[in-house]
Specification:
This protein is α/β, with parallel strands linked by helices. The chain contains 3 helices and 5 strands.
């Protein structure tokens, strides 16, 4: 996905310089005014804009994740990345929004998203 294509997922009328509230979830609807992405790759593209001030992350982003918390099959082939890939990207690029929330219903996945020592608000829904 190219940055220009992000306009498709931004709420209508949102200026390109406005602060972004990012919601990563494949199923649950975002709060009003939040940019909704359903994959780790889409979330990273939005984070790359440098305009995300708050994000809320789900861990399981595809049906296949409900049995495997890291997105790997028994045979070792990489499948659809989980929300953990987004956290790794933020750490590797030292690019954290002011507020990072976790709304995963998967307690093991949520714990993986919030390593000890990070300032992360955990919201389980």
């Amino acid at each position: 996905m190219q940055i220009e294509e992000l306009e498709i997922i931004f709420p209508l009328g949102r200026p390109k310089t406005e602060e972004i509230f990012l919601w990563l979830d494949d199923i649950r609807l975002p709060p009003v005014g939040w940019v909704w992405v359903k994959t780790a790759a889409e979330a990273i593209k939005v984070l790359e804009t440098g305009r995300v001030v708050e994000c809320s992350l789900d861990h399981d982003l595809a049906t296949e994740h409900y049995n495997d918390i890291h997105g790997y099959s028994d045979s070792g082939y990489v499948r659809e990345p989980t929300g953990y890939a987004v956290v790794l990207w933020m750490a590797e690029h030292n690019s954290f929004p002011d507020i990072v929330r976790i709304h995963s219903m998967n307690p093991v996945g949520a714990k993986a998203l919030a390593p000890t020592g990070w300032k992360v608000s955990q919201l389980f829904s």
